[in-house]
């Protein structure tokens, strides 16, 4: 699996540029909400502390003077985190606990999460879909957009409002924690089950973890928020990998974690 991760660009030399990652570390240190994506750090995280953390958790360069080129993610750290991710899936599956899944990268990661949702459902877990069809206003680089929370194969995402497209909604890219906050608030309002585990990326993980729900997910080397959340105990498990490669490259990871969790897809 380690060789596969490097061969397809999920680990090893990845797409994230060092300059862009450092810029996001600086924004996180300045508490920019666009980079915090739902996490409210307890500690003081300056740029140097973030570089050291990301070197430990991802394997990127620990040298602050290294400012160009592409980031490198250590595939062994990815595998170690995938094993921990699988352990959390196994625990919730054994209990048959309710779960909530969501992604801010539906074009890339929907298939990865959908396979997990199918396996957890087959194991007796309730895959929650709260706030289906509700709208949420999200600030993007193009201004304020009204998007609709939808679920495709049990995985939450946001898309343009309106009737569902043939073949299902593709969904919009977002780092915002607002979709998971909307979903969790709706679950509370309905008096139904709340998730024992939230599975996803970006704001889905950070937003849920900050509200006290156990959350696990995937993150790229330019997304320090999830790793800070893990370091502070707000997030349970973060898997470091490139989150922008071809969608089919993530499917072997689904099989890997389900096999490790003793779940069938």
Write structural notes for this entry.
- The protein is of the alpha/beta class.
- The chain has 10 helices and 9 strands.
- The chain has one domain: Rossmann fold (3-Layer(aba) Sandwich), CATH 3.40.50.
- The strands form 2 sheets. It has a 7-stranded mixed sheet. The chain has a two-stranded antiparallel sheet with strand order 1-2.
- β8, α9 and β9 form a beta-alpha-beta unit.
- α4 crosses α9, α6 runs parallel beside α10 and α7 crosses α8.
- The radius of gyration is 17 Å and the shape is globular.
- The mean pLDDT is 95.
- InterPro entries: Phosphatase_SCO2771.
CATH class: Alpha Beta
Mean pLDDT: 95
CATH architecture, please? 3-Layer(aba) Sandwich
Radius of gyration over all CA atoms, rounded = 17 Å
**What oligomeric state do these chains adopt?**
single chain
Quick gist of this model?
Helices cover 42% and strands 18% of the residues. The protein is of the alpha/beta class.
Q: How are the SSEs ordered, and which strands pair?
A:
Elements: H1 2-7, E1 12-17, H2 18-29, H3 33-36, H4 47-57, E2 70-73, H5 75-95, E3 99-102, H6 106-122, E4 135-140, E5 143-152, E6 155-159, H7 178-190, E7 197-201, H8 202-210, E8 215-219, H9 224-232, E9 237-240, H10 251-260
Parallel strand pairs: 3-6, 3-7, 7-8, 8-9
Antiparallel strand pairs: 1-2, 4-5, 5-6
Helix pairs in contact: 4-9, 5-10, 6-10, 7-8
């Amino acid at each position: 699996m380690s060789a596969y991760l490097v061969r397809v660009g999920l680990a090893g030399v990845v797409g994230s540029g060092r300059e862009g990652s450092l810029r996001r570390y600086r924004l996180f240190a300045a508490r920019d909400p666009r980079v915090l994506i739902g996490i409210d750090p307890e500690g003081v995280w300056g740029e140097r502390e973030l570089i050291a953390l990301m070197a430990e958790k991802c394997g990127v360069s620990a040298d602050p003077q290294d400012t160009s080129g592409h980031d490198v993610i250590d595939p062994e750290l990815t595998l170690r985190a995938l094993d921990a991710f699988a352990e959390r899936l196994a625990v919730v599956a054994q209990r048959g606990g309710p779960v909530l899944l969501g992604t801010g990268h539906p074009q890339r990661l929907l298939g990865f999460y959908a396979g997990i949702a199918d396996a957890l459902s087959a194991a007796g877990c309730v895959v929650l879909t709260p706030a289906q069809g509700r709208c949420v206003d999200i600030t993007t680089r193009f201004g304020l957009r009204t998007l609709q929370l939808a679920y495709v194969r049990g995985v939450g995402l946001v898309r343009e409002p309106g009737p569902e497209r043939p073949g299902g909604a593709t969904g919009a890219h977002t780092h915002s924690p607002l979709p998971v906050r909307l979903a969790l608030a709706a679950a509370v309002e309905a008096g139904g089950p709340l998730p024992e585990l939230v599975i996803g990326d970006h704001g889905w993980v950070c937003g849920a973890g900050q509200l006290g729900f156990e959350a696990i997910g995937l993150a790229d080397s330019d997304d320090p928020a999830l790793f800070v959340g893990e370091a502070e105990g707000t997030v349970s498990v973060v898997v470091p990998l490139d989150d922008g490669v071809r969608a089919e490259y993530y499917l072997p990871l689904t099989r890997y974690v389900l096999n490790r969790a003793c779940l069938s897809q």
